[in-house]
Amino acid sequence: MIALVLPIAFAQASAATPPADACALLTNADLERTVRAPIVERKPVTETAGGLLMAQCFFGTQSSRSVSLAVAGATTGPAAVTPRQYWKRQFHPPERRAEQEKEPDSEARAVGGIGDEAFWMGNRIAGALYVLSGNTFLRISVGGIPDEAARIEQSKTLARAALRRLKG
């Protein structure tokens, strides 16, 4: 089964090229226009996971709405993979796993019109949009919105804003 988030097990690797600052990729105006609530906190975290260096930012509001954005970067070391290698392994595995057959709600669904390729992973309760662009990818999740279609659209809107700054 493809996990909704990167694996918790952390690789011992040193950063070769740090990813972009995830907190700098979205402005308060981008966020507030999309989630319709003022941003009251930004929590940045950078860690290695699954052989990648992930720069993450949690954007919190005073309501239940929030946004989480992660940007993948390459690392060096024995567990290192490039963001594109990780993407291929996660979204284009050589064979379907039996777990995916048992849990269709957790299967990645292609999302058109953004990045080089994009997938939504989730269900009616929670999910994240993964967007590949060039040699990196973003993972964005919008919380506090009960309608899955609305979460996907808001995630796409924020991903487009983040990609503009990433390429900027």
Structure, described:
This protein has a single domain, classed as PknH-like extracellular domain (Protein Transport Mog1p, Chain A, 3-Layer(aba) Sandwich). Helices cover 25% and strands 34% of the residues. The protein has helices at residues 28-35, 83-91, 98-102, 148-167; strands at 14-15, 39-49, 52-61, 66-76, 109-110, 117-122, 127-133, 136-143. Strands 1, 2, 3, 4, 5, 6, 7 and 8 form an 8-stranded antiparallel beta sheet that branches. A hairpin with a 2-residue loop joins strand 7 and strand 8 (136-143). The radius of gyration is 15 Å and the shape is globular. The protein starts with 13 loop residues before the first strand and ends with a helix.
> How many domains, as an integer?
1
Report the sheet-strand fraction: 25-35%
CATH architectural type: 3-Layer(aba) Sandwich
Shape: globular
Number of helices: 4
* Low-confidence runs: 1-16
At the third CATH level, what is the topology name? Protein Transport Mog1p, Chain A
Structural class: alpha+beta
CATH superfamily: PknH-like extracellular domain
Task: Give the N-terminus to C-terminus distance in angstroms.
Answer: 35 Å
- The helix content is 25-40%
**Topology pattern, helix = H, strand = E:** EHEEEHHEEEEH
User: What is the strand tally?
Assistant: 8
Gyration radius, rounded: 15 Å
Average pLDDT number:
82
- CATH class wording: Alpha Beta
Question: Keywords for this structure?
Answer:
disordered N terminus; 8-stranded antiparallel beta sheet; Protein Transport Mog1p, Chain A; alpha+beta; 168 residues; globular; 8 strands
